[in-house]
């Protein structure tokens, strides 16, 4: 009877151990299965991110190419603009040149009287002034103005007691501005205070 109970206990113990082993095995399989699904999910997400990255990279390269092309096109247009910016003004100058040549030719061939020839030249000058005005070119005021080194260039000085010192008393060459920019300074003669003669100089002059 003792042996029988012992065997019964051993059988129960083996069954319990077997049940534990099966449960552990089942739990182990479940854990492995969960990890595998997570790995698959991560792999899918990684693939999605990779595709998105490739799309973004392609889009970036396209945008970079478009930007480079636009930049080159703008540079070409700028070069063309600089190259032909004065085309309109040159065409106007050519028209004035045609008028001048016709006036000279008429003077030589038809023995045009000097007064009519001079009138033709004045008309041509009027066209030139109008063209300059239309292109925002204007002369710099000089005579009677106080000397300004930004606008004027003093070539000569002369003693003059009728004007304040550094007043422009004569314009030797006109100056011009394009908009607010000086493109040629006016060449001028500027006044200075007369030299005061002392008594000795006056006496010497009187003795002579």
What does this structure look like?
The chain is α+β, with helices and mostly antiparallel strands and 208 residues long. It has a domain of 71 residues: Head domain of nucleotide exchange factor GrpE (Nucleotide Exchange Factor Grpe, Chain A, domain 2, Roll). 65% of the residues lie in helices and 15% in strands. The chain contains 4 helices and 6 strands; from the N terminus they run αααββββββα. Strands 1-4-5 form a 3-stranded antiparallel beta sheet. Helix 2 runs antiparallel to helix 3. The longest helix has 83 residues. About 5% of the residues have low confidence.
What's this model, at a glance?
The chain is built from four helices and six strands. By secondary structure, the protein is of the alpha+beta class.
Outline the secondary-structure elements.
Elements: H1 2-84, H2 87-109, H3 114-134, E1 137-139, E2 152-159, E3 168-173, E4 176-178, E5 181-184, E6 186-192, H4 199-207
Parallel strand pairs: 2-6
Antiparallel strand pairs: 1-4, 3-6, 4-5
Helix pairs in contact: 2-3
């Amino acid at each position: 009877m003792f042996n029988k109970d012992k065997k019964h206990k051993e059988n129960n113990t083996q069954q319990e151990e077997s049940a534990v082993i099966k449960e552990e095995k089942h739990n182990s399989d479940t854990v492995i299965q969960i990890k595998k699904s997570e790995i698959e999910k991560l792999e899918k997400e990684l693939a999605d991110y990779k595709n998105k990255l490739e799309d973004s990279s392609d889009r970036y390269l396209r945008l970079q190419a478009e930007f480079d092309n636009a930049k080159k096109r703008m540079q070409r247009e700028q070069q063309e603009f600089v190259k032909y910016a004065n085309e309109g003004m040159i065409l106007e100058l050519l028209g004035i040149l045609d008028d001048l040549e016709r006036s000279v030719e008429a003077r030589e061939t038809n023995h045009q009287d000097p007064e009519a020839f001079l009138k033709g030249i004045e008309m041509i000058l009027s066209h030139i002034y109008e063209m300059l005005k239309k292109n925002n070119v204007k002369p710099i005021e000089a005579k009677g103005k106080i000397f300004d080194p930004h606008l004027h260039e003093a070539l000569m000085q002369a003693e003059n007691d009728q004007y304040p010192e550094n007043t422009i008393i004569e314009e030797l060459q006109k100056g011009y501005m394009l908009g607010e920019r000086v493109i040629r300074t006016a060449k001028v003669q500027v006044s200075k205070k007369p030299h005061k003669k002392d008594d000795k100089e006056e006496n010497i002059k009187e003795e002579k």
